[in-house]
Amino acid sequence: MTETEKGKAEKTEIIITGFGGQGIILAGRILGKAATLGDHRESTLVQSYGPESRGGACSAQVTISDSPIPYPYVRNPDILVCMSQGGYEKFGGLLREEGTLLIDRDLVRMGEDDRPRFAIPATRMAEELGRKMMANIIMLGFLTSVTGVVSPRAARDAVAESVPKGTEEMNITAFNKGFDHGAALLKGRRKKASGKTGA
Amino acid sequence: MPEFKVILFMCNWGPHAAYQELQDRAAEIPPEIQMVRIPCSGRISKALLFKAFEMGADGVLLLGCETGTCRYGTGTATALKNVEDTRGILALLGLGADRLRFASFMPDEAEALLEFLQTAISDIRAIGPSPVTPPVKRSPILEEAETIRQVVAAHDVYACQDCGKCSSACSLTLSGKPFSPRAIAGAVINGEIASQAVRDGIWSCLTCGLCYDRCPSAVDFPLFIRDMRNVLSNAGLPGFEAHGGFFQSLMRTMTSPGVRPRHYEWLSGDIKTDHKSKILFFGGCAPYFDIFYRNHLGVETARILKDAIRLLNFFDIYPQILEDERCCGHDLLWSGDRESFRKLARLNVDRIREAGVEEVVTACPECYRTLATDYPAEGVEVPFRVVHLFEILDREIEKGAVEFKGPEQILTFQDPCRLSRLENRPELPRKLLARLESWDFREMPDSGRGAICCGNTAWIGCDAFSKALQAKRLRQARETGSDLLVTACPKCQIHLKCAMEDPFQGEDLQMTLRDLTSILADAIQWA
Ligand code: SF4
Ligand code: SF4
Ligand code: SF4
Q1: How many CB pairs under 8 A join A and B?
Q2: CA–CA gap between residue A169 and residue A167 (Å, rounded)
Q3: In what order do the strands lie in the sheet with B385-388?
């Protein structure tokens, strides 16, 4: 492996996008915290709000790396998480070719776009848990299990530390839901690939 | 050498004439043979054939006339079926099918008969003595009246206000049977246990628990009945078992420690189990039912066990199974044989402990209730968790990435009383039914905790009123406009199917029955 390739492999650029009020920025912050405080890596966060000025889309740009990050802006993410149609439309084209796309299944319609994706009904699951605003935490759990970009323990600790006091347990439950969903999805894909669809 | 006992049931006609000739010339009839003369081989039911084994016989021989020469027409054909079924049961039970044989002889075939008897005895000797220890005669522990007082007090029957809510809820009363729970309660309190009507009532109750659900004084009628049956049996009084007590005999046989059933021999290779797993799958008696009803109802309830393991495998759970699994004992407890129940409970718990198991999973509502609630209540401590398969499925499906594909059908559901009412978990099957998105689900008027019984519990007291009750239930199911009646207990399927065999109204009661576990196993897919 050459130096440049190695450098590439060590750095992951992520964009999480959705609309205001979904806790997109918080999700970005938790992800960065997990990477730095839990996994002892470097991380930066660039937040861009703009519910009014930019059609409601807001985004968090997170970079995670093993070496110091000189430039925190993310142009072409390795991982793109879309929690709104607007976010998908704005950032969908920027994802790297081999990148990983995660969407909220009920909120994003991809139409003709047939790229591989990991879909979860995060908002619906949050509603079932009785708190729609926890969709971001469910998505974080999903992101953690599907991509492994942060370790599950670091992510859980960061969630517990970042949410309002008294809601830790609920949020960890939400995180686990998303995490389990991701794990089940990966398992299902493995099984399907080995030719086992049903019971 | 232990004393061998082989029971010879011999038809009065063909074979007996041949046998007499052997006796007349003092031929060497093997001394192990204990002969019972019978009017026709077709009259020896599966229950009678099996009863001999329950009582410790090492072998049973049934002799009849040749097919076509039966004096009563169908005797030999019936005998052949009964023997075939009972042999299947003996094989599953691990006693060995070859301990039971049928043969037919004409009066002039004395020589052939002698040869048959000698070969049969030497073959049975080669299998070895039966591992079954015959039951000792039960003796009342306390004086009857005193015991009754204790039973009445234990279930707070004195609290009855004579309001009649129980009778107005009871499916049996509503089917037209002259039967009143409160009258039975009152009569027992008044010491009228000698009355035949009271005893009949005690053996008629379905122990379904619907009345307990409605009773303002919380009189636990099913438990009261259960314990009263024990009092009556202890006093040596006859019960009212369906099918001649076949199933009670079968379960009592399993209380002998030496019996080693072969419960899963029929299980096919695509199922994965792991003898080191901390999770045990406890299947229940369905494989016996399928053999017993092979020629009558043609039910396929053993499939439920297989499908349950298939579902666990789907989620990468590879449970242990006990090749020598025994009955949980539910039916013995509810048909008045607490002593045998406790024996069975102890054998089971010891065996499961030996297997190093932390969690027992079952798909049978009765096994679930019995292991989780009745074992501890009867003083048999359970060193493992008991969970219903549906709980595990719900947990795993909840993780997502799973979908159900299948024909679009309209479903309705028959609640198993042990799960939905006695254990109060009507939501468990419903959560899973709700996952079947393309199916339409319609409840019957009496459902959940309030569901009407399938018609029988613990193979006790089946009669024409049970049939009326089942007919009513099946009509309710059909009136929902559903294509499929979903069950979650092998016995619900058996009893309801039985009502559809009615020669007069069977046509109007037909409905496809399928177990929820099997439906899920066939429809589940990774999304
Ligand atoms: S419902 Fe209860 S209180 Fe009322 S008559 Fe029946 S047993 Fe007695
Ligand atoms: S347990 Fe069921 S069958 Fe027995 S009296 Fe109560 S409602 Fe009737
Ligand atoms: S309903 Fe049919 S299968 Fe069930 S106990 Fe009665 S006779 Fe037997």
Answers
A1: 47
A2: 6
A3: B279-282, B359-362, B385-388
- Cα(B322) to ligand 3 centroid in Å equals 28
What confidence tens digit (pLDDT) does each residue in B9-47 have? 999 999 999 999 999 999 999 999 999 999 999 999 999
Whether chain A has a CB inside 8 Å of the CB on B303: the answer is no
DSSP string, B320-366: B--TT-----HHHHHTT-HHHHHHHHHHHHHHHHHTT-SEEEES-HH
Q: How large is the average pLDDT for residues B79-101? A: 97
Q: How far apart are CA B469 and CA B14, in angstroms?
A: 44
- Among protein residues, the one with the nearest Cα to ligand 3's atom 6 is B462
Domain B263-394 has CATH 2.70.70: no
Domain B6-127 in CATH 3.40.50:
yes
- Is B402 within 8 Å of B527 (Cβ atoms)? yes
Q: Chain B residue with minimal CA distance to A186?
A: B401
Q: CATH number for the B401-526 domain, one of 3.40.50.20, 3.40.50.1860, 1.20.1730.10, 3.30.830.10?
A: 3.40.50.1860
Burial A119-155 (b: 16+ CB within 10 A, else e): bbbbbbbbeebebeebbbbbbbbbbbbbbebbebebb
Contacts of A116 (CB under 8 A, 6+ apart): A101
Mean pLDDT along residues B42-60 = 97
In chain A, residues with a C-beta closer than 8 Å to the C-beta of B523 are 198
- Residue among B155, B206, B240, B421 whose CB has most ligand 2 atoms within 8 A, to mutate: B206
Work out the minimum CA distance from A178 to partner chain B, whole angstroms.
8
Does the distance separating the beta carbons of B311 and A185 come in below 8 Å? Answer: no
Cα B172 to ligand 2 centroid, rounded to whole Å: 7
The chain A residue lying nearest B522, using CA atoms, is: A199
**ipTM over the 0.85 cut-off:** no
**Domain map of chain B by residue range?**
6-127, 144-234, 263-394, 401-526
Q: Which domains does chain A have, with CATH numbers?
A: 11-198 (3.40.920.10)
Residue identifier of the C-alpha nearest atom 3 of ligand 3: B495
Residues B407-445 as b or e (16 or more Cβ within 10 Å = b): eebebbbbbbbbbbbbbebbebbbebbebbeebebebbe
- Residue B495 Cα to ligand 3 midpoint, Å, equals 5
Domains B263-394 and B401-526 share a fold: yes
Is A188 an 8 Å CB contact of chain B? yes
- Which A residues, 90 through 149, put their C-beta within 8 Å of a C-beta on chain B? 120-121, 125
- Specify whether the CB–CB gap between B181 and B205 falls below 8 A: yes
Is any Cβ of chain B less than 8 angstroms from the Cβ of A197?
yes
Q: Is B45 helix (H, G, I), strand (E, B) or coil?
A: coil
B143-185, pLDDT tens digit by residue?
677 789 999 999 989 999 999 999 999 999 999 999 999 999 9
Q: Residue B296 above 90 pLDDT?
A: no
Residues B490, B457 contacting (CB under 8 angstroms): no
